[in-house]
Amino acid sequence: MINKPKIIVFSSGTKDGGGSGFENLVTQSRNNPDLNYEIVAVVSNHENGGVKERADKLGILFIYFEKPFTAERYAEIIKDSGAEWTALSGWLKLTKSLDPKTTFNIHPGKLPEFGGDGMYGIHVHEAVIKAGAPATAVTMHFVTDIYDDGPVFFALPVEVEEGDTAEILGKRVNEKEHECQPLITSMVVNEEIVWDGKDANTLEVPEGYEWM
User: Fold this and answer.
1) Domains (ranges, CATH) in the chain?
2) pTM strictly above 0.85
């Protein structure tokens, strides 16, 4: 039997929805034989929101993470889940003391231009349009204790089109996220993309890697 790296996903969602990225990671892992990982649990700071609804439907362990969001609680949740990797997918809280070598995030914008505290979801798309940027991006990066820090290992440009609103642009970015996130996630947890957790210059990606 092929060893499937175990991932815990942190996904805030909302009281009424969200969690589509988490669901996509699960369904793609079950249906695409080219992907090698298993989602063992999902965490949300909404006890009965959209993420829990999707987790229940998929048969994935749901964990409610209420404040305070301490380093000790992060460590406890991850240890108890048995996960080897931590994927942030729409997690809106600052992570603390997670292993930067095994923790990664997907961000709906180009970094570092459209990152940092408060830059998430619709706020990123509003900032991109306000800045008159010709393109935004789907960005994936390793995670430190600073918002949107850590080396970027994937950046897929998404053009801003004439007449775009934040909502229209956001929908297009979300579609691109769903296309690429499972594949890149599989590459990370199978250590085709690695770094030492300290020096961004140690980042290693496969030869012929052309997304950047």
Assistant:
1) 6-124+138-157+178-202 (3.40.50.170)
2) yes
